[in-house]
Amino acid sequence: MKMKKWFFGVMSFSTLFITACSSGRGGEEGNSAEEDEAINIGSMFELTGSASAYGNTQANAVQMAADEINEDGGIDGQEINIEEYDTQSDEAEASSVATRLSTRDNAVAMIGPALTGPMQAAIPNADEAQVPLISPSATDDDVLTDEDGGVHPYAYRTGFTNSFQGGALATFANDDLDASKAVILGDNSSDYATGLTEEFTEAFDGEIVSVENFSEGQNDFNAELTNIEQTDFDVIFVPGYYEEGGPIINQAREMGIDEPILGPDGFGNDVIYDLASEENMDNIYHTSHFVLTSDDPDTQDFVSNYRENFDTDPDMFAGLAYDTVYLVKQAIEETGSTNSADINAGLENIEDFAGITGTFSFDEMHDPIKTVSIIEVQEGEEVGTSEVEPDIE
Amino acid sequence: MEAFIQQLINGLSVGSVYALIALGYTMVYGIIKLINFAHGDIYMIGAFVSYFMFLNLKLNIFVTLALTMFVTAFLGVVIEKVAYKPLRNSPRITALITAIAMSYLLQNIMIYVVGPEARSFPQIVQNKTYTLGNISINQMEIWLLGTSLVLMVLLQLIVQKTKMGKAMRAVSIDAKAAELMGINPNTIISFTFLLGSALAGAGGLLVGMYYNTIDPMMGATPGLKAFVAAVFGGIGVIPGAMVGGLLIGIIEVMISAYGNSMIRDAVVYLILILILLIRPSGLLGKSNKEKV
């Protein structure tokens, strides 16, 4: 007990001290690069730890984008210098890396982290230092929102939110599949699925005839699917990840349910083909942030460049991280300043940024309004992509 | 009505796996009064062993099943010798805690060795669906139910008709008296772990085949549910584990089908609490009080 009091004493003292220090530099308004210096951009990703699979591809893509920009002469003649840190998939570490980048390394913008939790932990420090922080892939709806429902002034993301794709899938079901009756089979204990379900339900013009639920880690869906089979419907929406999506597709198709199945970006992992078994991956549509096989020349350049550098195919997370660097570049060019607060204003007002993951601007909540790609799978092969335009009211 | 029968078939498939795992819990408990929480993870290892055998050895399903059961049986015996035997005379709680530690150890070793991600199981049996009216049953379900039934009958024969089985029953009633009669309890205990782990291994293979997906955490939930099934049927009673397993499977599916699947797991654990309060010896358990 005594130990604890002592600990809290030190903690509150050091908090006071830190607050005093940072208020001392309040007049400066963020970081800038001198004209003859390189522009420091922070890269903070999960290079080790549970999310290292996401973090490493993103950090690679960020470095690759910076090298490309420097080869082409930098931003208005100034080179970019990437300061790379490992957040260890840890929230406390992400928070201290954000502070270090913004106060010691003079970063004018920070890119990362990949996950929602570390992003949330890092945002207050970005706000405090007035240095924009852009996560390529934190898709949870509320990441950028503060406790009063407003947006954190220095936080952004490049990937569309969970619920945004729910709306896009509903539009796709309405317009492209002509569906009038939908069934939802989702995990209603996850934020991911509930956000998706809500948006889908709202945007779907037809009738939701049945909603079935499952829980994380479940692998037997026969009970739910038998119920679904008894109803009359045109399309099944499965808001979930490939771990459950694969077995659901497998069991549904084995049961003889052959209606189209719609899924979110969580289906975007090749393991789903094994889990569902290839012949069952038929009549499946899922969203994706990025389409590897797109014939857009920028995308093709990115894919071949990435393969050359890292000997593997890039995934959508790499695509998002790559776009984020060019997004910062555009903000610097448009504002003509390397001051982090100016860059922030530039990001806020960015219009029609044309990236490989789509063309977008930010809405007032700093979420990108972008086209959603929907990949169509027939007989175990990706046969095409449809673009769904965002529904802007 | 047809939908109901279809759901009953679904429930039997799920339940037969619980029954296979529950048998291991119940036999070990019957003999040494230990709830072997590592049992669900032996089932998981069974799934991985058969996965690698199918991939690398490409043997037929019966040989793979036999080999998998052999490997998990061996593992079960080793675990007993290394982790539980030295604690035979310690308080029961010590062995219980060791069992929990063993469960996490196995899970984490497998996460380290094979990685945490879900893998797809090779498809060995061409899955055909047979329909009768509106009721359909597929080949996997027939495999699952059939194999479980055959193994359970075999087990019952071993326990009731063989000398080893007779010795098992004797040790479970009174280990000291059995020892005086010339039975070596250590051999019997090892034999029990061997039988139980072999059945769990078979369960792992069948589930891998049926659901087409395996991962190192797959043993945790079915392990707990099988434990509930064992208690439900009467822990220590072999037919009780079978009945308990099948009933828990059917109850789960019926709740998903006609109730709310959110409360499915809650109901299963509620059954555990209710059984312990109302009929601690379980459905088929003898209600005589344990001698102190």
UniProtKB/TrEMBL annotation, chain A:
The UniProt record lists the keyword Signal = yes
Task: Provide the protein name.
Answer: Branched-chain amino acid ABC transporter substrate-binding protein
Signal as UniProt keyword: yes
Show the taxonomic lineage: Bacteria, Bacillati, Bacillota, Bacilli, Lactobacillales
Give every Leucine-binding protein domain span.
Answer: 39-380
Q: Which residues form the signal peptide?
A: none
The residues forming a coiled coil are none
The entry assigns this protein to a family as follows: Belongs to the leucine-binding protein family.
Q: What keywords tag this UniProt record?
A: Signal
Gene3D superfamilies, alphabetized: 3.40.50.2300
TrEMBL record, chain B:
Q: What transmembrane ranges does the database entry give?
A: 12-32, 61-83, 95-115, 142-159, 188-211, 231-255, 267-285
Q: Where in the cell is it found?
A: Cell membrane
Pfam families linked: BPD_transp_2 (PF02653)
Q: Which GO terms describe its molecular function?
A: L-isoleucine transmembrane transporter activity; L-leucine transmembrane transporter activity; L-phenylalanine transmembrane transporter activity; L-valine transmembrane transporter activity
GO cellular component terms attached to this protein's record: plasma membrane
Enumerate the InterPro entries for this protein: ABC_transp_permease (IPR001851), BCAA_transport_permease (IPR052157)
Q: Which UniProt keywords apply?
A: Amino-acid transport, Cell inner membrane, Cell membrane, Membrane, Transmembrane, Transmembrane helix, Transport
Against CDD domains, the record matches this protein to: TM_PBP1_LivH_like
| A single BP term in Gene Ontology | L-alanine transport
Which membrane topology describes this protein?
Multi-pass membrane protein
- Chief subcellular location equals membrane
Q: What does the similarity note say? A: Belongs to the binding-protein-dependent transport system permease family. LivHM subfamily.
Question: What's this protein's name?
Answer: Branched-chain amino acid ABC transporter permease
Q: Which organism is it from?
A: Tetragenococcus osmophilus
